[in-house]
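Schema walk-through. Below, the input block comes first and the output block second. Nothing else is stored per chain. Lengths vary across the set, and this one has 92 residues.
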Amino acid sequence: MIKVTKKGKKTWVTFTTPAIACESIEIKGSWNDWEAEPMKRKKSGEFYITKVLPTGENYEFGYLCDGREWMTEETLPTVGTVFGSENSVLKL
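--- output ---
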């Protein structure tokens, strides 16, 4: 699930995954050259992180479960990659 709050030239984006069988989830995206950022776990088992990104840009990203399983955001469109996987596309 994605929550987007736009304020001028900046957009606050909260990424939340459903409660799944992962010990850890990292988010990786084109906004920071695909550097892994750990997501925090809620008591419900969901993982979340909030990013502040420039408004008017498009970003590709995905979630990495336990350092090995690549997952996309179910609520957004995806694009294929040169690695044979898919990335989610966030349009701000």
